[in-house]
Amino acid sequence: MELLKQRILTDGVVKEGNILKVDSFLNHQIDIDLLNEVGKEFYRLFGGEDLTKIVTIESSGIAIAAIAAQYFHLPILFAKKAQSKNIDGEVYSATIRSYTHGNDYTAILEKKFLGPSDRILILDDFLATGKAQRGLLEIARQAGAAVAGIGIVIEKGFQGGGDALRREGYNLQSLAVVDEMSPQGIVFRDL
Amino acid sequence: MELLKQRILTDGVVKEGNILKVDSFLNHQIDIDLLNEVGKEFYRLFGGEDLTKIVTIESSGIAIAAIAAQYFHLPILFAKKAQSKNIDGEVYSATIRSYTHGNDYTAILEKKFLGPSDRILILDDFLATGKAQRGLLEIARQAGAAVAGIGIVIEKGFQGGGDALRREGYNLQSLAVVDEMSPQGIVFRDL
Predict the structure, then answer these.
(1) Would you call A58 an interface residue with chain B, using a CB distance cutoff of 8 Å?
(2) Tens of pLDDT along A131-181?
(3) Between these two residues, A188 and B81, which has the higher pLDDT value?
């Protein structure tokens, strides 16, 4: 997605430790007009699938899933991190290693919202090692829900998580894949 | 907002400990069509203000702020909880007591995204004691940003936090105010 790549080149900042900061437009401050274009692109890629729900994980995926869901006319569902007094009943859960925060956390999703009759699209802002996405796949497996696709805004291709999921047969589409990055520049994969 | 009140009566569940669960349509699973109506209503209430940004706090506020922001054509900014490797530089911060989780957390927002030239609208899903909103007000105060208004989807009026903020002069508008609730029923305030 050319508009997105241009925005990453203009406003993205590469930091030590393989961090690509896009917090001025994607995951701290959010440019909603850009997100609408992202949502339309996900609809172009996955709109032909017979989907029941869009699933993401808090927090950075929520705005993306919400804006995209308007084009699909589907509800969104976001997995929550850790426990809350507000989560009761039976939940699906998966332990996820956070690359960003450097710790483990548990993602939970109430069972009543996802089941074998669901066919979901997973959306998220970033994919690096793929740990968060594998957490959502585990939750889908527990639910018996089918995963029709995985849509990612920015994939850090050089970390390999995306290609591993593709090799396993998932229909993973990323709007921008960064194959190399350094403070000197960013190289995108030709899609 | 009648549509919202009807939805709360249909799908909301009152639980022990003053918990009103609306997780089937507002903050776990999200009905995006309803959220669009919520966004339009916030625009009706605050669209006349000269705003620069919409500010919320992760996680439940994000979808609401993102959908509403489309009507305002403004960027959103969400305060994050606790520390992350991805947050660097100078941040504004406020300690917030979570009613839902029963613990304290720190909300942070990078200084570069908010300053004295900003005039913000704060949006959130719930207001009970008002602790989260006061955290965002504290962050706005540190930034020198003006707060033009506070928009809340559901206010638990009987907990008093909303009326305290109104007495202090804030332009706080809630789309539904619950003045009484029990497993037997919910009484809304006439707005």
Answers:
(1) yes
(2) 999 999 999 999 999 999 999 999 999 999 999 999 999 999 999 999 999
(3) A188
3-class DSSP assignment, residue A47: coil
Residue A67 forms contact with B (CB below 8 Å): yes
- Alpha helical stretches, state H, chain A: 2-11, 32-46, 60-72, 131-143, 161-167
Q: How far apart are the first and last CA of chain B?
A: 9
Q: Which residues pair with A55 in a beta bridge?
A: A77, A122
Angle at A126 between CA A125 and CA A130, to 5 degrees: 130
CB distance from B69 to chain A under 8 Å? yes
Nearest to A25 by CA among A39, A7, A42: A7
Please determine, for residue B86, whether its predicted confidence score (pLDDT) is greater than 90.
no
Paired tokens of A49: 């699938």
Q: What is the DSSP letter of B113?
A: G
Whether A75 and B32 lie within 8 Å, measured CB to CB: yes
DSSP B137: H
B11 part of contact set with chain A, CB < 8 Å = no
**Mean pLDDT score of chain B, rounded to an integer?**
94
CB B29 within 8 A of CB B23: yes
* CB < 8 Å to A74, chain B: 32
User: Which pLDDT tens digit goes with each residue over B15-39?
Assistant: 988 899 999 999 999 999 999 999 9
> How many DSSP H helices and E strands does chain A contain?
5, 11
Q: To 10 degrees, what angle do helices B32-46 and B60-72 make?
A: 60
- Spell out which residues of chain B touch residue A35, defining contact as CB-CB under 8 Å: 66
| B88 chain-A contacts, CB cut-off 8 A | 15, 21
Query: A138 touching B, CB under 8 A?
Result: no
- Cα separation, A125 vs B102, whole angstroms: 29
| Helical axes B60-72 vs A32-46, angle rounded to 10° | 100
- Could you give phi then psi for residue A25, rounded to 5 degrees? -140, -10
